[in-house]
Amino acid sequence: MIRSGPCSIAMLTGFLLLATGTLRAGDQTPPDEVVVGVPGDLDPTDPAPLLILLHAYTLTGGEQEAWWRLWPVAEANGFLFASPTGSTDANGLPYWNANDNCCDYEDTDVDHVAYLIDLVDAIRAEHNVDPNRIHLVGYSNGGCMAYRMACDRGDVFASVVSVAGATWMDPANCPAEHPVHVLHVHGTEDTVVSYKGGFDPFNPPFPHPGAVGSVAQWVENDGCDPDSWASSPPFDFTSELSGVETDVIRYVEPCDPNGSVELWRIQGGSHFPSLTDEGRARLVEFLVDHPKVAPCPADLDASGRVDAGDLGILIIAWNSSASSVDLNGDGRIDSGDLGILIAAWGPCP
Where are the beta strands (DSSP E) in 71-125? Predict the structure, then answer.
């Protein structure tokens, strides 16, 4: 059973650290040992967005959250939140098996894709999760893992954020069968995962693409025009530098409705961005602004068809104001929404 965590960030982090346990190489924390942060004012009848934070190599999930402190901003925006810990290597260092570059250095071939899908499923079994608003944010090795999940299971995730990470060097390793909203954040002076691409100092045989190369792959995957981009004013993402150091490039047209790409360049930034309050807020704002577009509005459980599962969701929300179930937008779940659902019964177009 997934344990619902408290709303206090200090307590949540403490429980996450306790939940990681001592793991053998090739193992990972089972989903039932991951604490889920639940907003204190969450309406259980209203499907909530889910944010999963993926740690860097050598950090635990609790340590990553203790550093970046995303939970308070996530909670304020109504997100369920989890920060799991991956496997540990022979030296006791946590990692994700993201790609050939990073960071399964002992070639255990542990399946972290399946693990994270199991985690999502376990959280959905315990909480009312909006299937169109499931998001990943990853740092370094976790950023590589976020890309891996977009490649392999883009049907599950609305958006992924990779901070100081990289995708596969060979695009053929990334099936990308589903569009995903992608945000790549990278310091231009990163000497660990180079902004320009290069080799992992821990794994020199396998190169990684740079920030521009990673973004270019997803511009293509999401059907965007590589020549159609827009920029916006810089902002203060990290406290390691003074002033406004991070500029923004967006590819939004003519991308797939469920895909878009952004590159946030931390000018002069290193591999170790400590986030400002503005940086945290902008990260979560990106997630809020990039849900999946449901194939048909009455498909409340994103199963590809309108059926008894969707009817059950609507009945649970009856007489509430749950926005994600309010099919006619009148602020109340009632017979009007039921009529729309029945009219859409069957496979989605």
Answer: 80-82, 87-88, 94-95
For residue 162, the one-letter residue type is S
Helices 9-20 and 61-68 cross at an angle (nearest 10°) of 160
Integer Cα distance of 293 and 128 in angstroms: 18
Confidence class of residue 24 from pLDDT cuts 50, 70 and 90?
very low
Which segments of the chain belong to CATH 1.10.1330.10? 305-347
Spell out where the chain has E strands.
3-5, 35-37, 48-54, 80-82, 87-88, 94-95, 129-139, 159-163, 181-187, 197-200, 203-209, 230-235, 246-251, 260-266, 305-306, 346-347
pLDDT in the model for residue 2: 45
Q: Are 115 and 142 in contact (CB under 8 A)?
A: no
Q: Which residues pair with 36 in a beta bridge?
A: 4, 82
Report if pTM > 0.90.
no
Phi-psi bin for 144: left (phi > 0), alpha (psi -120 to 50), beta? alpha
Q: Does domain 305-347 have CATH number 1.10.1330.10?
A: yes
CB count within 10 Å of CB 236 equals 17
Domain 3-288 has CATH 3.30.420.180: no
Given a cut of 80, whether residue 8 has pLDDT beyond it is no
The pLDDT of residue 238 is 98
CATH 3.40.50.1820 domain range(s) in the chain: 3-288
